[in-house]
Each structure stands twice: as C-alpha cells, then as structure tokens.
TrEMBL record, chain B:
Subunit of malonate decarboxylase, it is an acyl carrier protein to which acetyl and malonyl thioester residues are bound via a 2'-(5''-phosphoribosyl)-3'-dephospho-CoA prosthetic group and turn over during the catalytic mechanism. GO terms for molecular function: acyl carrier activity. This is Malonate decarboxylase acyl carrier protein. The gene is mdcC. It comes from Bradyrhizobium stylosanthis. Belongs to the MdcC family. It holds the Pfam family ACP. Keywords: Cytoplasm, Phosphoprotein. It is found in: Cytoplasm. It comes from the Bacteria. Covalently binds the prosthetic group of malonate decarboxylase. The modification O-(phosphoribosyl dephospho-coenzyme A)serine is found at S28.
Amino acid sequence: MTGWQNNRAARDARIAAGAGFARGKLVEAQDATHLLEAVIRPGDRVCLEGDNQKQADLLSRALLAVDLAKVSDLHMVQSGVVLPEHLDLFDRGVAKRLDYAYSGPQSARIARMLFGGKIELGAVHTYLELFARYFIDLTPHVALIAAVSADREGNLYTGPNTEDTPTVVEATAFKDGVVIAQVNEIVDAVPRVDIPADRVHFIVKSDKPFFVEPLFTRDPAAITEGQILTAMLAIKGIYAPYAVQRLNHGIGFSTAAIELLLPTFGERLGLKGQIATHFALNPHPALIPAIESGWVRQIHSFGSEVGMDDYIRARSDVYFTGPDGSLRSNRAFCQTAGLYACDMFIGSTLQIDLQGNSSTVTASRIAGFGGAPNMGADARGRRHPSEPWLKAGAEADPDGSALMRRGRKLVVQIGETFGDKNVPLFVEKLDAIELAEKLNLDLAPIMIYGDDVTHIVTEEGVANLLLCRTAQEREQAIRGVAGYTDVGRRRDHGMVARLRERGVIRRPEDLGINPLDADRSMLAARSIKDLVRWSGGLYSPPSKFRNW
Amino acid sequence: MEDLRFEHSVSARAGGSRTSAIVGVVASGNLEVLVERVLPDTECAIDIKTAAIGFGEVWTAVIGDFVERHSPGGLRFSINDGGARPDTVSLRLAQAVRLIAENGQ
C-alpha cells in the first residue's frame, strides 16, 4: 500500500514495540538491550553518540549485546569512533557500514579493520560535513545519545558537554526517527532544558556517569624551549602583523605555548587587546592566564573540558553559559563559527608535503578529520571584511582589484621540524596517499589542502606561502623552514636566501626574537599547579594531571 | 661517545665584551654549550663530545648554517651533547652567541 506517512507509522510502531520495556519513557539499565532489539531494525542507520569527548557508553555496551537474529548489519553514522565497543560492533556483525569523522583513540585498530574488510567504509568526514549529511542522505533511524540528567517527561540536561547532541536529535526526531537517551540521573526538574522532551522517546538511567576524556589539557611542564621559540615566531611573525583577533587554536603543545606566552611575551610587545580576543575554542586550561590577564573577551566552545566547570561558571563574561550557570557548548555552531567568523586557524599536524598538504594519517593509523579541515579552510561563502582577511587576500593577489578581491583566511600549520620520537614533520610523499592506494579510496585523506595553507611555522622560521608566486617558490619556502629533516636539507640555498630577502621566509633574527627568551621562565604557567593558582582554585584538574 | 671538531674562518668578530658564557644542560636530548672568547677575530672553533654516534653529516650542516648566520668570530665552543635533536643544537648555539654578546664581565 502506498502512502505519504509510512515513515511516521514505522516510527510509531518502533516506539510501541519499545514501550513494553518502559514505564512512561523510563527504561531500566538492565532492559536496555531488549529495548534496542525492539526499536532497531536490521540495516538501520544508527547514530551512537560518540562525540569528540562525551560517550554514550552504556548504550554502546547494550547495543553490542543484541541478538544478531534481531539486529544486524547496521549502518553507523557517528562523529566519533572512540570507544573499543564502537569497533566491537563491527567485529560481532551488529554493524557493517560506517560513516564517521574522528577516531583518535581507535586509530590503529580502525586501520587494521579497514584493511581486513571488517568495516565497509562510507567516508571519513569533517564534523560539519557529517552533520550536514544527517539532514540530507545519512539521517539516522535511531539516535542513541548521552545526557547528564532527565526529568520524567524526558527533558534533557546535557551539562557543559552538549557537543553534538542537539544536531543529532534535530536530524533524528524531526525525520521520523527514535531518540533514546542514557542519563546519569533522573531528577524532578532539570537545571536547564538542552533537549525538549517531545524529541526524546526513551530514557535509560545509567549506573555510572557517561565517559568523558580530558582531550584539551596540555601540561605546561612538558612544553619545550623549541616549542616556546616556535610560539614566539607565530606571535611576532603572524598574530602581530595581521592583527588577528578572531581565531581558533588546534590541540597541541605549540598552541598551548602560544596561549601561555600571551601574558608575558605578548604583553611585552604591547599586543594586549590587539590580538587573540575572540576564540572558537574548547575551554583550554592553558588559556587561563591570558583570560585572567584580561586578554580574552569571548570564547564559544565545541565541547567542554574536564575540570573547567567551576572556572567557566565564574567567568560567564568570557564563556557561553545557560540560565543554570554552566557552559553551553555546541559543536555544529562552533564549527560554523570557526569556519565563517574566525580569521585564523593555527594547529599542528603529523606530516606536511612539498605543496603544503598535511595529514594526520600514517601508514598504520587513521585518526579521521574531526574539525580541523573546517577551521583550516578558506570559507568560500564568506562576505564580511576584516583587517587580517583583507591583508592576506592582498598578499595572495597584489594586482587584483581591491573591491573584487576575496580575502583569505589565515591557515597556519605550526610544529617542530622533528616531532615525537624524532619523526620528521616534512615528507616528500604523504603516507595518506599510500593508504588511499592500498584501500582503493577515491580520495587520499588530506587534513588540510596545501592551497588553503597560508603559513608554516617551525623553530627555523615562518614561511608565508601567500607571497609565493610559483610552485617552485612554494616548495623552497617549505624546504626553507624544514630544518635538518631530509626535506629541509635538500633545499636550494640560493633560492631560500632570495625568499628570505623578500620576507617570504622570516627567521627568528629577522623578527628580532632573542633566542635567550626561548626559556621556560617565559611561560605564564609552568605546571598544572600554576594553572590552578592562576584560576584562584577554580580549575580542578583531573587526577592524571595532578602530581601534588 | 664520539668527538668532533670543526674550524671555520669567519668574516666578523662576535659582538659584546664577555669572555665566556654557558647555556643548556647535559641531559638526554639536550646539550651544554660553553663559549669562550679565546681565538683571533676571524676564527671560530667548535669541539663536540656527543653521546650519539654517526651524525657527523648533520653536525656539519648545523655548524655550517650557524657560522654563516651568526658570524661567531673569536669564539671557541665546547659542546657536551646528550643526543639533542639538530633544532635544539641550533637553538643552544644561538643562545650561546647571544649571551656572550651581552655586556657584562
């Protein structure tokens, strides 16, 4: 029989089947697997909320335990493949196909399973891209999400880690899908409504709080002098001349070093109020000294960070907070903010080739993309001017008409020429290409394309790729900051010297940076304990970062 | 351990009036550099004791770039290396030449 509301009828039938295991919307934790067997159909598209940080871990385990005669061959559409259970689903045959964005902690195993054919891969996305597809061709039939608390009607409080939840629920609930939430507790009244009850069909109370990992905490004690020198080069060679106020920082020690140099080195340069005032950024503990010194006016966040809750609550002038006082994060909105409203992205990577393409994929690890490609890309739909954007556009096209010329986002790759375990940052050929060939992919997994990269900063200097006029100049500009890696040592010395004369390459001495300042005493905080002190005791670091 | 020695002719005398300076520490992945103003103005010498064997070619490149960029005439450098990366060596040498160029004893 044909009709126009078949999907709604199917949704109602799923809910009716699940209702047998519920009192109202409430389901006991031990009945979670039965609930999923009743609601989910073989081959369904399922979003198992695995965000960058927050994990629907109870529902993951419940899904893993289903009877394969009832539930199998699922198509998982989730941003983060983070927990071992996320991959166990494929080993067991509960799930077959995968579309995702980020797989940091599981990067080695996911690579093995892709090579072994255990996973049928749709594509590796950026966050915004996967979210977009939730509304076009990857709409979930069932969403399994995580929240802090629920009331009996099903209103959800997500707490500071709201992250992807509103996006996932929007796509599922308004297209005849079923939303099942695990919550840490059932309360009479939620502190604030992050997800309204009429979008939530079942609630499972978890026996323990959902898993959250402190992904954005970098211990200042581990920052090296090389990273400090590199950070000074970035501040004096890029932040200052472009007057970058609106920006996003990637994760890593280099950007943590920048955050910790703002109140010291930045202050000495008289840059307070001129740079780094508005951020799309998770609540990085390393930014506390800059916030306390009055550098930062506003931060919107993708998610939260473990230990930062009380600090954020007390600094609501800086962060976005709800009527309950706690952080409201939202990954989709923050990604959009980073793409359209920031003038600079600066972050680290694992490999950069001679055209400036970068990738975090190595031969045995597929970490996915997460958000960096959205931050680290020129937004072709951008129309509002700003000083850094116009200046970068003018450098790239000095002869173009000022009224017709597009600006450029500053996309900066920062790192030491030799990374962890002395692995060179610069390579002739990315491992990502080899991987694409082996897995027969249509596209190599490139994190940031070379034509979007505007600057590369290493301890050897700043390469401004906007000023390069030929592919050969670009290659030599990259070799010219590649230090003593093989790529760096194969430079054309004459050409690099000429690029330096033109200011395409700038060395520490060209920027008036005293190498003696590359000292840990220059960091505003030199330990996690210093960060706690700067916060007036409001920052409460997780135990793995405590050594007192 | 490996001992290496480099001697370069240099166009200009290193600035400043200090007679010696020391930077860095002897530790794994780090190095200590003692610099002394003891040579004629157009000479420079670098003595290296390193824990990492077989990196003579990289040392040659690092020292060559350093001499070209900083023109450390009149200086003798004594390096105690704990297997530092070349970028760390470059930074320590730049720090040493800067420190001896500062005014002081």
